[in-house]
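Q: Structure tokens for this one, please.
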Amino acid sequence: MVDIPVRRAQLIAPFGPGAMTITKEGVSVVCAGIDHWYKDVYGTFDNTDIEHYKIHEWRLERLLDVDHFRLPPDFRKKGQSDEGINLYLNVPFLRFPQWHYCRFCGRLEKFKLHTSSNRLECPSCKVKNYKNYLVQVPYVAMCEHGHLQDFPWREWVHQSGRPNCNKPMYLVSTGGTNLSSMVVKCECGIKPRSLMRITSVNPNGTTYLSEHLDEKKDSIFTCQGKRPWLGTENSQPCSNHLRATLRNASNVYFAKVKSAIYIPGDTTKEVDEILELFYSEIFQTYFNLLNQIPLPIDKKVDSLRNLAKKELKPYTDNQIKDALIRLNTEAEVIEEEDFEQVSQEHQLRIEEYNVLNHETDQHNLRINKTNIAEYKPGVSTYFSDVFLVEKLKETRVLAGFTRVTSQNGLGTEELKEMLRLDKQNEEAENWLPAYEVYGEGIFLKLNEDKLAEWEQRPEVLERIKPLQDKADELYKQGRMEHKDITPRFIMIHTLAHLLINQLTFECGYSTAALRERLYVSNRSKESMCGLLIYTAAGDSDGTMGGLVKMGKPEYLESVFKKAIDNARWCSADPICMEIGSQGGQGPDSSNLAACHSCGLVPETACEEFNRFLDRALIVGDLSLSTIGFFN
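A: Here is the predicted structure, written as tokens:
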């Protein structure tokens, strides 16, 4: 196993279990599964106290069905831990790909996953008294179910899924820059074979590698079900076609990160105790009395203390507030579920939306509501509320990963199993790796009446039809989860990107440091039409400050106006706007008028991988201005 310095936040994404990276010595390695975490340099748990790493986020625990989360281990030496525990813990990385070749003679050699040497001599050159070193091959193979393996060099050159030859092989270049110039040879004398078309994939998902590895027989060479990041070369059954790819290709690893903004009501012992009291018959009587007259939450706390002095005496006002907010969000979600089934992910957003719409002053969440009347026309016309989130905490959890595409149709439990070697059982602790970050943000709530009228316009509904068809196509292909692509969703999503791009100029944050969080729903029992732009970067970029200031009167108007003005013309127009109206562009051809020159942001800042965007829904297209909400 190889150890490399990686920041703790990067072990959630992008360098979590199953992801490859390069050490400073140039060795390609893959992050080990969570079974190997929290061990010391001797591979034992003798001096480890897991309690120091446990964190809780009650809504994500409910969503992912786990008991708790754990921070990735940090490396501590003696003197850096007061208790003398959790010393020398690390997250191991294993050498992958295992096949290496000599750039001088082409000799191919395979090494074990735990080989730690940085410089491996070529045996063929050594016999001839030359000192040349082996480097890892540039190609690996993977499948849509997340398996990863070395390219089948021996099977490819022998055109057999079960070759008997064990003689040395060579990877040589015949001159040129494409795959056809790379040739695999074997000392057994079989005809050399080029790597031409090994990365080719058919539209139906079949691959040239699987279909033509054995050209003499009518058989398919499928994925071997390898999981090298778990420290084993054992296989598991898999019938997917095998895809060859460059080891550093962008589609080799997609981290499945689930996140939640902290809202009051985390599962602390005291809040749970108060909730049990609230569910009792006597407290239900109290609530019936209090609900007859709408009261602010602080007044409601005072009234409850007067009605139940003895029962609530052990608890602080903030703990009672947390319990009240959690009780209210659960009640609203239950009402919604009675009317129409909602996903747990959507339920999580409803809870956040309900909290972000109110002022609060908690340790990990501080929200101030502005007076919308103080804003100039423009902001006050199109937005009903602006909330300044002066402090927030976000918990990010690694819930698995995919390869080839960001969605592969596997369920939450199957994705979680990709992270560990031993299948989760009832006796073992059920946990996932997570990380907590802090930041600030601006929560904008659009004018519901204007939005409802605009999204019913025939020209608007006609405009988004191609994106709705594309979403249905991607869902049927298993490349995205089911999502309602509505005019308000596309418009609010595009607005978030435009504001992020403008805010980077106004307050100095990089675009990668800002994130969007969309709260959009057309459901009749609850309607959401808000967006949160926030910073929660794990490094110093997330603590610069200044984002909240840009949400205040006399600042937000300028940001908003410039963002809308910039949307009216793209440096790629009229092509950008015209291509959008003719079918689509961008990732999966799922955007209309949006490109890198106008509407895209770094993928880490976007919830939808830069898909489902259209400037025309903001400002109108070249021929019809009524399409734009802000016209």
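A few notes: The longest helix spans residues 317-339. DSSP finds 18 helices and 21 strands in the chain.
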